[in-house]
Every structure is written in C-alpha cells, then in structure tokens.
Design brief:
The complex is a heterodimer. Chain A is of the alpha/beta class. Chain A has two domains: 118 residues, Response regulator (Rossmann fold); 101 residues, Arc Repressor Mutant, subunit A (Orthogonal Bundle), CATH 1.10.10.10. Chain A has eight helices and twelve strands. In chain A, the strands form three sheets. Chain A has a five-stranded parallel beta sheet, with helices on both faces. In chain A, strands 6-7-8-9 form a four-stranded antiparallel beta sheet, with helices on one face. Chain A is elongated and about 55 Å long. The mean pLDDT of chain A is 86. Chain B is 52% helix and 20% strand. Chain B contains ten helices and 14 strands. In chain B, strands 8, 9, 10, 11, 12, 13 and 14 form a seven-stranded mixed beta sheet that branches. In chain B, strands 4-3-7-6-5 form a five-stranded antiparallel beta sheet. In chain B, helix 5 packs antiparallel against helix 6 and helix 8 packs antiparallel against helix 10. The radius of gyration of chain B is 52 Å and the shape is rod-shaped. Classes of the chains: A alpha/beta, B alpha+beta. Chains A and B meet through helix 4 and strand 5 of A and helix 6, helix 7 and helix 8 of B.
Chain lengths: 228, 460
C-alpha cells in the first residue's frame, strides 16, 4: 500500500511515517500543501493522510483541488480543533474520514485500513477467497484455517493483489504501490516474490490463486470470493 | 487623532463653520430690513412736514377777483430765507407760475418748469423724491371757490433731502455698530453653548480613557438621553468582553489545574511502577485523560456565550449536512436514517453551537446504534425540539441520570468515557435548554433536546 502523508509538524510526520512503514505501507511525505498537491497529481496513492492546518495551502483546499481534478484516493484528515464544524468542513471538502489530534496509533491504523478496503470495495476487514483468508487488520494469512507465514513484502504483494482481485495488475503498478519511488525497480525481485507466494499458498499447485497474464501482469482469482 | 481629524471634521468645527456662514447672512438681512424701515419712516415724516407746509401756504393765500395773492412773508420762515431747504411754488391751471417763495432762487429752473406738468386731480397729493436734485417734492392741487367761480391751482413744496440723508447715515453707522456687537455676542454664545452641549462627549472620551488605563471598568457618569444609548451599549460590550476574558481565564485555570493530577500520577509512577509494562499502561491511561481534558476545555472555549439571538438558524439543512457527513464516516456500519424535519424550524442561537451539539448526539447514535437512526426536529411554541433515536443497546434507566449529571468533573471521570455528551450538555444548559434521555421506539436510546427556537423564513 502506498500512502502519502501531509503534515507540517516534523515530529508528528516522522512518527506517522515510522508507524505506517512498520505496518508495511510505502510512504511519501511532505510538509507542504503545494508539494502534496503535485505529488497527488503525479503519482497514484492508495491513501492520503492530510493535516487540515497546513501553511500556505490549507489541507481543505488541497483536498478540494484533488477532488476537482478527479483524484479519488481515500483521504483521512487530521484536525487539531476537533469540533464538528471543523470535521464537517473537512468531510464536505472531500475527505473520507477524520481523526482529531492527539489520536491513538491503533485507531489511526484501523481507520486507514478500513478506508483502503472500502476504496477497493471490501466491507469486511477479512478477505476470504476459497480456502484462503487474509485478515487486513491482523495482517495474517491463513490457508484452510492454518496460518501461512509470509514476509512483509510477500504479505503486501498478496494483500494488494487480493484487494484488487479479478483485476490484472501490471508489474509496474505493483512495484509502484509496494516500493518507495527511489527503490531500484528490478522486476526480477517481484517475480521472486510471486514465485515464493505461489509455493507457500499452493504447494501442490491445485489452487493456482495467482495467474500470470503474459505481457500484462498478474491477476488474483479464486472461486467463492467474499469480495463485496 | 490628527489623521482622523483630516478624515472627518470635529463636531465643534462643523457647528462653528455652519454658524460662521449663517450668522452674518442673518445679520446682513436684518440690517437691510431695518435700514429700509427706518428710511420709510423718515420719508413719511418728510411727507407730512411737506403737507403741513402746503396747508400753511394755503392758509396764507388770499384771492382777489381771480387773482391769487400771497404775502411776501409767510408764517414759515424757511420760505423767506434763501437756501433754507424749504421752497414753495404755486401754479395756476394753465401752468403759469403764480408765486414762488423767496427761498427758491437757487432752485434749478428746469425743475421749476417741470413742476406743473404733473396731472393730478384735486384731492390727490403727490410725494416723490428727486434724487438728482436732492429734493423731496410734495404737490397738492386745489380748487378755490371765489365769487362763484372755481379757481384751480397747484401748490408745490420742495424740501431738501439732506436731513434724511444725514439721518440715514447716522442710523446706518449706529446699526452697523449694534449688529456687529450682536453678531459677536451670538458667535461667542454659540461657542459656549457648543462647549456646554458637547461636554458629555468629552466626558465620555475621558471616561473611556479611564477604562483604558484601568482606573474604572465601566462608564458610570450621568449622560444626557441621547448619549445614554451609546454608553449603555458600550457598557454592555465592555461587560461581555470582561466576562469573556474571565471565562478564558477560568478555562485556562481549570485546564492547568486539571492537568496537574495526571501529571502528578505520571511523575509518581516512576517510583511506583514495578515493571515496564505497567508503567506504559499508566502513561497511556493518563495521557488519554489529559487528552480528554484538553478536548473538553477546547470545545468549551470555542462555544459561544449562549446568547439567544433574534435571527434563527435553520435546523433542517444543518441536520441534513451532518447526516450526510455521518453516512460517509460510518460507511463501514451504515445506518438507515429517517429524517422528519419541520422545514421552518430554527434555532435562536449560534450555528456553531448547534452543529457541535447535534454532531455529538448524531455521532453517538451512529456509533452505538444498530443500523437505524431516526431524527425529528420541530417547533413547539417558541421551543425548538429535536430528538435523535437509535436502535442500539440504549441507556439503562439507572445510568441516565449519571451520564447527564451536570457539573460532573471531567478529570474525575474514568478514562474512555466520551466527552461528547458533556459538551452537548454544556451547550444545552448555556441556552437554558433541556436534554433528556429515554428509550426510543426503535429500541435504543432517544436523546431529546429543547432549545430556544423560532421560525425561519422559507426563502432564506
């Protein structure tokens, strides 16, 4: 998952980045509304966290402009005031959820998780396809009820594919959403992850959850999905 | 102050300038009228003098046959003295001169020639001024009955106007003196009246300055009726500002004091807590408590004073906005919302307060409800009544009193308890409203709010 963090307080921004990176998000960060506007226009993010009280360009204006230009990524606003007037203004500007400062890290993570899921059309935090189950909240994958141990990158790759189940995801998109933009994008690495995932999820090759669409990318597909 | 004076003239300068224009105008007009009247009365006196002279002449006339005879000296000595300024002439009907006074030698012959040309009927008198010659002319035609025949002749008396001119000169000089005096006195009087009349404003400025330097805290002087309105509003403004300041000070003090307890707990925990885990939990608990305190005081600080306003805020659009926003926030646990809103229902208070109050109540309904929320709003007399119900677990009757207990200190509440209701209650009570909890027909809790209300114009 790729997240954009827009917060002008350097300490809080660093905390947010650390927190989200620990939870497997790929992070872009900025303290300026103008730069955030540009980043949002140029790159695709799965979620943005925006502080309302930014210098130069307010968070509300930033969100409004993104929405006017048709950028639909889910946005969570952080507000210091926390009164309803503020929240209503943020939500009416186009934000999808709000959180008043100071907040509990667990609550922030839960809300972000819910927003990402909602944006890809999943109501429940648990994605279930056939014998395969992925709990986005607990970040646990299980096959026929037994937990499958995955590395962080493997988990993120699988989560992205499952959230976009049925869609063909190009290698470029997958890299874009999983790695930092400065990362050395060697598609071989991705192929290695996919191969390992296939081995772990489908050791006897009876399920075939991830198919390679030649020349286009990968697609996750399994019968009996619960994608709502 | 000097720049303000450049923008707008002082009241004093305005009044002085106006009277500097109007007063001379009035005085000049009065002077002209007086001169005119005095001149008129002088001329009247002149005319009656001349008439008197005519009668004198007539009294001295003797008719012999159809000849007119006049003695060489008449009663009025002026007629005999040369250059006396009184001249007499008598012409007969065909215009030939019958008699002229001895004084009349110096009169312009032209004037004498023109004397009989006036066409006067007997009984008609003529009085006119001949400015070029400096003379007043009085003519009187007479019919004399003697021996059965009527003799017509015309008596003319000329009088020098030098007397009138000199009188007028003296009078105008005197008048000028008096009027200038009056003008001066009037200006002076005006100045003092103005100073006296505007003194309350000077006093007001001085009193305000005293408030500024802090010797007093309100305007307590006695002011005239016209200024009383201003001073009353100023006093109200000062008072509300002072109360606001006090409120801020209290809030700040409350905030500082209520933060001390959790800080003390954290400080003491270093010695008290045996292990890392319990220390972390304690810090977590106490910061949560501090967060609630800060948020509560913050929401109190932005809350208005709860003044009832004449202009009512429309409730229906605000509730619709809030519901839209709630549906967005609670998209993961969507609720079916039924709105029954009276379109003209209004709240006679601050819009921000209403939004905060309803935001908190609706948030609770969405959070604790189980997929169903009902909102009703309407006016009952001049009361705005809003009820928000849900189908959640509801509030047990024993708990109802507790959650709405007014004055329950926040920093003594257990962590985790929402502050939304405390804020809502605060807002309601600042408007002398009411907040009740009961069970709703949906099966959960029903929060019913009563606030000062009023109708909203539909087109607004």
């Amino acid at each position: 998952m790729k997240a954009l963090i827009v917060e002008d307080d350097a300490d809080l921004r660093r905390q947010l980045c650390n927190l989200l990176e620990q939870r497997g998000y790929t992070i872009e960060q900025t303290g300026s509304g103008r730069e955030a506007l540009y980043l949002g226009q140029e790159y695709e993010y799965d979620i943005a966290v925006v502080d309302i009280g930014l210098p130069e360009m307010s968070g509300l204006d930033l969100i409004r402009q993104w929405r006017e230009e048709g950028h639909t990524m889910p946005v969570l606003v952080l507000t210091a005031r926390g009164d309803w007037q503020d929240k209503v203004e943020g939500l009416e500007a186009g934000a999808d959820d709000y959180l008043a400062k100071p907040f509990h890290t667990e609550e922030l993570l839960a809300r972000l998780n819910a927003l990402v899921r909602r944006a890809s059309g999943h109501a429940s935090p648990i994605l279930r396809y056939g014998p395969l189950e992925l709990d986005t909240a607990a970040r646990v994958v299980s096959l026929n009820g037994t937990e499958v141990r995955l590395t962080s990158y493997e988990y993120r790759t699988l989560e992205y594919l499952m959230l976009n189940a049925g869609k063909t995801i190009s290698k470029a998109e997958l890299t874009e959403h999983l790695y930092h933009q400065d990362y050395d994008r060697d598609s071989n690495v991705l192929e290695v992850f996919i191969r390992r995932l296939r081995q772990k999820l489908d050791p006897d090759q009876s399920l075939q959850p991830i198919t390679t669409v030649r020349g286009l990318g990968y697609r996750f597909a399994l019968g009996g999905g619960s994608a709502a | 102050m000097s720049s303000e004076a450049a923008v707008s003239l002082s009241l004093r300068a305005r009044l002085l300038r106006a009277s500097a224009v109007i007063l001379p105008l009035v005085i000049i007009l009065a002077g002209v009228a007086l001169l005119k009247a005095f001149h008129g009365s002088l001329e009247n006196a002149e005319a009656s003098q001349a008439r008197l002279h005519v009668y004198l002449l007539l009294g001295a006339v003797e008719v012999d046959g159809n000849q007119l005879k006049l003695p060489s000296t008449v009663l009025e000595p002026g007629f005999s003295r040369d250059g006396s300024g009184v001249y007499g002439f008598i012409h007969n009907a065909d215009g030939s001169l019958l008699w002229r006074s001895r004084s009349s030698q110096s009169i312009d012959p032209d004037v004498v020639q023109r004397l009989p040309s006036s066409l006067l009927q007997p009984g008609q008198a003529l009085f006119s001024h001949l400015p070029q010659q400096g003379l007043y002319l009085f003519q009187y035609p007479v019919i004399w009955e003697a021996d059965g025949t009527d003799i017509r002749f015309l008596v003319s008396v000329l009088r020098s106007d030098s007397h009138v001119v000199s009188e007028m000169k003296a009078f105008s000089l005197q008048l000028l003196g008096w009027l200038s005096g009056v003008g001066l006195v009037a200006l002076l009087a005006q100045y003092f009246i103005m100073r006296w009349g505007l003194r309350p404003l000077d006093q007001l400025a001085a009193d305000l300055q005293r408030i500024e330097v802090g010797t007093t805290d309100h305007l307590d002087g006695r002011y005239p009726e016209e200024v009383q309105g201003v001073t009353q509003s100023l006093n109200r403004l000062i008072e509300s500002e002072r109360r606001q300041r006090e409120r801020y000070r209290n809030t700040l003090a409350d905030l500082a004091h209520s933060l001390k307890t959790p800080l003390a707990v954290i400080r003491g925990a270093g010695d008290d807590c045996a292990d890392q885990h319990s220390y972390r939990r304690l810090v977590e608990e106490q910061t949560q408590r501090m967060q609630q305190i800060v948020q509560y005081q913050l929401s109190r600080a932005v809350k208005s004073e709860g003044r009832v306003l004449a202009q009512a805020v429309a409730v229906a659009p605000l509730l619709e906005r809030l519901v839209r926003v709630m549906e967005k926030v609670y998209a993961a646990q969507p609720a079916e919302v039924s709105l029954s809103l009276q379109p003209d229902a209004g709240f006679a208070g601050d819009e921000r307060d209403l939004m905060e109050l309803l935001g908190n109540l609706l948030d609770n309904a969405f959070k604790y409800g189980n997929g169903q929320v009902a909102v009703e709003a309407g006016l009952e007399a001049d009361q705005l009544v809003i009820s928000i119900s849900d189908n959640g677990a509801g509030v047990a009757p024993a708990q109802r009193q507790v959650i709405l207990q007014r004055g329950a200190r926040l920093d003594s509440q257990t962590p985790g308890q929402g502050i939304g209701l405390a804020v809502a209650l605060d807002i309601v009570s600042s408007y002398d409203g009411a907040l009740e909890v009961s069970s709703s027909t949906l099966g959960g809790a029903c929060f019913r709010v009563e606030l000062p209300g009023g109708p909203v114009s539909q087109d607004a």
